[in-house]
């Protein structure tokens, strides 16, 4: 009799516990989800680390080239004639500083300003082992980044148009990269333009790199036309 009573009580107890949800199904699914998430996290982390490592290696490679380039036996060629010809009829107030072989032209408009750097480098005695396109692309990108950074508060995310091209024919090559900016904070709009133009011909590398930022779109247009005049006057 006691056995029957105990059995009945146990049965009632089990039903009560089940109804309350205390007895739950196996947690196999929960374990599986946790394992999958962890695996995905590890995979994403590995992919992210690989991408960062690749970018870091590329930066080291570029920095090494830039250091080797300027440490090699190069010399600067006078660009006064090129600058004088390109600046004819310039609508901006301007001032030129010529130091260390580089001519820096400071430009000032009614609603903005900027600058252009012009240089010509003789590579005939440099002894660099890099091919022409590698020199053009890496040096061009180097100057483009430096020049674009002069537009305070502007990043590549603010570019509304961007272009990059490198071409070569026999023993001469040309590099061009530019970006236009239009950025508004709700109160005012900024218009900017930055460009780097480089030509390597007869062991002479000519680089023209400039940036301009203004609240007047027409001043940006005038600056891009000025950069085009410089390009027209670079021997290719």
Structural description of this entry:
- This protein is an alpha+beta fold and 236 residues long.
- The chain has helices at residues 2-20, 28-71, 80-86, 132-148, 217-233; strands at residues 75-77, 93-99, 102-108, 112-122, 159-169, 172-184, 189-201, 204-214.
- Strands 1, 2, 3, 4, 5, 6, 7 and 8 form an eight-stranded antiparallel beta sheet that branches.
- α3 packs across α5 (217-233).
- The chain is flat.
- It starts with a helix and ends with a helix.
Task: Summarize it.
The chain is of the alpha+beta class and 236 residues long. The protein is built from five helices and eight strands; from the N terminus they run ααβαβββαββββα.
Topology (SSEs and partners):
Blueprint: H1 2-20, H2 28-71, E1 75-77, H3 80-86, E2 93-99, E3 102-108, E4 112-122, H4 132-148, E5 159-169, E6 172-184, E7 189-201, E8 204-214, H5 217-233
Antiparallel strand pairs: 1-4, 2-3, 3-4, 4-8, 5-6, 6-7, 7-8
Helix pairs in contact: 3-5
